[in-house]
Amino acid sequence: MYDFAIIGGGIVGLSTGMALGKRYPNARIVVLEKESQWAFHQTGNNSGVIHSGIYYKPGSFKAKFCRDGCQSMVEFCREHGIAHEVCGKVIVATDESELARLENLYQRGLENGLNVKKITAEEVKEVEPHVACVAGIRVYSTGIADYKQVSRKYAELIELQGGELHLNTKVEKIRQMPNSQVLETNKGTFEARCVVNCAGLHSDRIAKLGQVDPKAKIVPFRGEYYELTPEKRYLVNTLIYPVPNPDFPFLGVHFTKMIDGSVHAGPNAVLSLKREGYKKTDFDLRDFAEVMTYPGFWRLAAKNADEGIKEIIRSFSKAAFVHSLQKLIPEVQADDVVPTHAGVRAQALMNDGKLVDDFLIVKGQNSVHVCNAPSPAATSSIEIGKAVVEQLPAPQHLQSAVNA
């Protein structure tokens, strides 16, 4: 009998396991991951950015967790010798029509308590000499990190705290018992008093196995990236973002300096035909059918048809993708970029066609389900883990030890 079983070994699941071990040192904790390594999906394929929290609605989970998580992630990396850099970023308006949105973003940054500064086009060029813009914002707390390395350290700390880790272990069924839940897997059964679902791309399915309705469905969006050739990396010093479109939830094509020195450009955002579909040709009939028969998807598609078509064109046309990059750095040419890895964002979508804009944490009977944790979840992982622990009922024998 375990006290806590965590389904999913991405950065959020592992952070939750680490937080549980700190809160309840005597607890029996197990983390179950279906893949052969930790942080295999969203965590292992993201841009590696330590986000500041400037984009998120003040008072939201994303705003609070990201602002606090930005600080706690940097502190964690420093403490454990994990590769990272607080390099800052610029968000730029490329024409006059974007200035009002840039001002709104600046005000949001102030509301979220961030160290941000409005800068002129000339001041942008002092940071990023190759950028063309009319004005910008300097965000000082943004950084980059190796989130796979962070996740491995979380896993190491769980084991040091006495927790168990199981890779290649897929949860296939959940049986409710009077005071526990039995997780049936391809590697046998695990019984736990409390269950935490951090299954990312499959979080809605795991919730339903646990008899919890998240009232949203995961719709996978693939983000495709190019990277600058080594001889063109000098074009980017830090991170360069456009002003995001408030009607479209993704941040737009941008330049990101990675912790290994490479520079990635992207991503676009296109519907993936498989929840773990990193290639255009990846297809899963069940995943595809679920999206195509979900009314929320068609409502979203109707509302964002124009943007959706632009994203699809960028997916299949390198020229269109490069044209988007040239709005930020006019010098970039098609020969300067080569395709690199793609990531898949697990985006929760409601039946009315609205994307779940915040982290979605749903409570069940002796369970907590993290059903929407896209970016900035990696940045916020330590804070999300703490918040999940606060929502879990403490087993009686552990509560008495904590109180003592």
Short recap of the structure:
By secondary structure, the protein is an alpha+beta fold. Helices cover 33% and strands 26% of the residues. Its EC number is 1.1.3.-.
Report on this model:
- By secondary structure, the protein is of the alpha+beta class.
- The chain folds into three domains: 156 residues, FAD/NAD(P)-binding domain; 50 residues, no CATH class; 139 residues, D-Amino Acid Oxidase, Chain A, domain 2 (2-Layer Sandwich).
- 33% of the residues lie in helices and 26% in strands.
- The protein contains twelve helices and 20 strands.
- The strands form three sheets. Strands 5, 6, 7, 13, 14, 15, 16, 17 and 18 form a nine-stranded mixed β-sheet that branches. Strands 1, 2, 9, 10, 11, 12, 19 and 20 form an eight-stranded mixed β-sheet that branches.
- A hairpin with a 2-residue loop joins strand 19 and strand 20.
- Helix 1 runs parallel beside helix 5.
Summarize the topology:
Layout: E1 2-7, H1 11-23, E2 29-32, E3 49-50, H2 61-80, E4 84-85, E5 89-93, H3 99-111, E6 116-120, H4 121-127, E7 135-139, E8 143-145, H5 147-160, E9 164-166, E10 171-176, E11 181-185, E12 188-197, H6 203-209, E13 217-228, E14 239-242, E15 254-257, E16 263-266, E17 270-271, H7 285-292, H8 295-303, H9 305-316, H10 318-326, E18 337-349, E19 360-364, E20 367-372, H11 377-391, H12 396-403
Parallel strand pairs: 1-2, 1-12, 2-9, 5-14, 12-20
Antiparallel strand pairs: 3-8, 4-8, 5-7, 6-7, 10-11, 11-12, 13-16, 13-17, 13-18, 14-15, 15-16, 19-20
Helix pairs in contact: 1-5, 1-11, 2-11, 9-10
GO molecular function, one term: (S)-2-hydroxyglutarate dehydrogenase activity
Keywords: FAD, Flavoprotein, Oxidoreductase
EC number: 1.1.3.-
